[in-house]
Amino acid sequence: MGNLVAIVGRPNVGKSTLFNRLTGTRQAIVNEEAGVTRDRLYGKAFWNGVEFSVVDTGGYATNSDDIFEEEIRKQVLIAIEEADVIVFVVDVITGVTDYDEGVAELLRRTNKPVLVLVNKVDNHDRIPEASYFYSMGLEDLFPISSINGAGTGEFLDRLVEVFPKENTPEEDVDLPRFTIIGRPNAGKSSILNAFIGEERNIVTPISGTTRDSIYTRYNKFGHDFYLVDTAGVRKKNRVHEDLEFYSVMRAIRAIENADVCMLMIDATRGFEGQDQKIFQLVQRNKKGIVVLVNKWDLIDKDHTTTKKFEEQIRSAMAPFTDFPIVFTSALTKQRIHKAIEKSIEVYNNRNLKITTSQLNEVMLAEIEKNPPPSIKGKFIRIKYVTQLPTQSPAFAFFCNLPQYVKEPYKRFLENKIREHWNFNGLQVQIFMRKK
Ligand code: GDP
Ligand code: GDP
């Protein structure tokens, strides 16, 4: 958990090709399940049983006022600050450029692991040229070809070796972990202060040994949980915070370390594209979600305002619509406890395990009332259903012809599950399996 890799390097060295190679197949599966669109910004990858996240800096919009190289420089600095491992891609065909030297200079100053990939080494003849890149003063260097895959195995072996060790709190590892995420200025640090405030006697910050994320324990009003990466929220970085890349890196780190994410949006701005992107990051990580519409005190309200807001958010995230939305004010503290109660509810829903006998009793009856439509004269018989032992809710329906069960019927099954049990705040995955 929380192995975050940032790919940096100048344009055209092959960052995006590498990103696709690392995340390709698995990404496709993840998206098919979650129904979210693929992009090159963020993906999950696997090597030797280790899961990690990859962010390609080249995919991000940058500030148009800045000169180009300055922007990339910023992205490198953010990557150094926020990622666990930095992968620096250079191009064997062009050789070492001034720009590469500049990036290398920044990277030599960090204590974080840096792996240099000399890309486009498509054949053995180019291997000697790859060694010229040692002149940049970075030790961990791998000649690879992102296009044909040569050398990527050695690189990945090394990558999973250099990930930092876990720093989950030693005690009480089973406590729920919540995090507050969202765009700059939504009110995250304000609500955090409202939650934990100055009451230091009940707040125990546990700082990580190998990472800079911090778990703050909240233990009052009968609740006991960790707020994750609150340091990240509090430690502002005004230089970078208008960069999308920066917000995304921050959000990813917090999401990966949490069970439930409170996505805070600014009511005065509405639910915008970037809010939607952060929401999708939560979905891809299969974490619980609670949406907080903050600064509610600033909104002129009539009896339709809440409903309109809710509809706007849910329709943007459809077909996933079963999640809590809480209208808060960090300023007046309106409903901030409801935000916590909802997060706890979602956490409990995430851990809900329904027995197979209960599931079959309820779901087989529903299926009998509304069987899957027959296709080309073939009848689909669903024989039984079981909940999978996964971290987020997933169900396998066993039947004679799984390939004939289409999306609308799967959605029907999902909705029936949601009617009978509480999976508010969570995506529910439905799999059809051959029996
Ligand atoms: P980015 O701008 O750094 O993301 O670079 P891209 O991934 O878009 O690649 C730039 C160009 O280099 C494309 O034409 C790729 O097909 C090509 N390219 C990427 N990796 C390799 C490689 O390993 N070998 C060769 N020969 N070309 C590559
Ligand atoms: P962050 O960047 O998400 O951590 O946002 P901050 O907590 O720093 O808040 C940004 C600005 O919005 C500050 O000026 C806060 O005082 C203000 N703010 C935060 N929450 C509320 C709220 O619920 N109502 C109002 N009126 N202002 C708020």
Q: How is this structure best described in words?
A:
By secondary structure, the protein is an alpha/beta fold. It has helices at 15-34, 68-82, 98-108, 127-130, 152-162, 188-196, 230-234, 244-256, 273-284, 305-317, 336-350, 356-369, 407-420, and strands at residues 4-8, 42-47, 50-56, 85-91, 114-119, 141-143, 177-182, 203-207, 214-220, 223-228, 260-266, 288-294, 325-327, 382-387, 394-399, 429-434. The protein has a seven-stranded mixed beta sheet, sandwiched between helices. Strands 2-3-1-4-5-6 form a six-stranded mixed beta sheet, sandwiched between helices. Strands 14-15-16 form a three-stranded mixed beta sheet. Helix 13 (407-420) links the parallel strand 15 and strand 16 (429-434). One guanosine-5'-diphosphate binds next to helix 1.
Q: Output mean pLDDT.
A: 85
Unreliable segments (pLDDT under 50, ≥5 consecutive)?
25-38, 198-212
Ligands bound, unique: guanosine-5'-diphosphate
What is the N-to-C succession of helices and strands? Answer: EHEEHEHEHEHEHEEEHHEHEHEHHEEHE
Approximately what portion of the residues adopt beta-strand conformation? 15-25%
Secondary structural class: alpha/beta
Widest β-sheet, arrangement of strands: 8-9-10-7-11-12-13
Pfam family, one: MMR_HSR1
Protein name: GTPase Der
Domain EngA-type G: 3-167, 176-351
Function: GTPase that plays an essential role in the late steps of ribosome biogenesis.
